[in-house]
Structure formats: C-alpha cells, structure tokens
Design goal:
12 strands; Rossmann fold; alpha/beta; 5-stranded antiparallel beta sheet; single chain; about 20% helix; 4 helices
Length: about 190
C-alpha cells in the first residue's frame, strides 16, 4: 500500500504516507485546497458547534474549514491563531505546541485584537486533523487566557488514539501506520 484510501463525507481521497522516525507513518491529509470536501465537512461539523459564538482555528490547514463552518453558522468572522507574529500585530498572547506534523516545539500567537473577540464568548475550536491533541490543547489554553469558553472541538479526522476521545467531534477515524513487510499496515 503506497497510500491510504480515505472516504469521508461521501468523498474518496488518496492520502500519501509520511514516514516518522520510529518506523511508523501517518497518512498526509491536506484539505486546505479541497473545496469540495471543505464544503461538505463544514456543513456536517457546523451542526456540532454546540452554541458557539465564534470559531477559532490554528493556521494554516484549518483556515478554509473554519471559514466554511462560520459561513454555515452565519457568523461575520472567525479567529486564526498564528504560527508567527505578523508585522501588524501590536500585542499578543502566546503558547507552545509540539504537533505530529511539526518538527520540534513551536510557539503560537493570538493577536490581542482577536483575543478580545473571544472574551466572554463560547468558542468552537476547529482543525483538520486531531492526532495527539497538542495543537488543540494549546488553542484551548489561548482561549482560556483570552477569557473565552471552549464549547466544542471539531475536526474532519481523528488520528490514532484521538478517535477514542469523547470530548471531540470528528467525521472519520484515520489510523496510524506501521511499516510491514511490503507496505504500511494500520496500527489500530
């Protein structure tokens, strides 16, 4: 098997494997430019926003999905947590994350202007894939620092053990993979 065949929202996609150092691999799911899947997944996930008043995502792959969910919920805007400080940002709050797709630790930043939008609000955190949950946990800490309340955690896919979590809503499970004799085989 050179790729993983995924079916989600009635759509089929071929996901290439990305090797990790310990002989395992993950199936690379890059949804940011997949308009068809974003639209269908956004519509399905919007139903689980649990009264959210604003949507939050971490750049970059979750941005299109956050846009679609906020559109489905008739919201005027959504908030993006950045992976670098932009020149127009005057002040910010930050946290650290170590995700499966990023080498090493990485700081993430929430512009104080965006933080004000979260204050006292019910926030739905949106991501494309939840794996170890590190990005999600960092986003939650930023929401708390901003004075918001996380009311839902939404993703298209839950990878590996994340699919066992009861505090997230996702549309499809995505296994992790171990190198077999001839190809990658699902671990769980």
């Amino acid at each position: 098997m050179e790729h993983y065949d995924l079916e989600v929202c009635g759509l089929k996609r071929e996901l290439p494997f990305v090797k990790l150092s310990d002989g395992t691999a993950y199936a690379s799911f890059v949804v940011i430019s997949d308009t068809e899947l974003i639209e269908k997944a956004g519509k399905e996930l919007a139903a689980f926003a649990n009264g959210a008043e604003i949507i939050l995502t971490i750049e970059a792959k979750g941005i299109a999905l956050a846009y679609e969910i906020s559109k489905q919920l008739h919201m005027k805007e959504f908030v993006v947590v950045r992976k670098s400080v932009k020149s127009y940002v005057k002040s910010f709050i930050q946290d650290a994350v170590h995700s499966i797709t990023t080498e090493g630790n990485q700081d993430i930043f929430l512009d104080e202007t965006d933080a004000e939008k979260l204050k006292g609000k019910k926030v739905a955190i949106v991501d494309d894939v939840i794996s170890k949950g590190e990005s999600l946990a960092a986003a939650e800490r930023l929401v708390q620092k901003a004075g918001g309340e996380v009311c839902s955690r939404l993703a298209i896919l839950a990878e590996g053990k994340a699919a066992e979590r009861t505090d997230i809503t996702f549309l499809q499970k995505l296994p992790l993979f171990q190198k077999g004799k001839e190809s990658y085989e699902p671990v769980d």
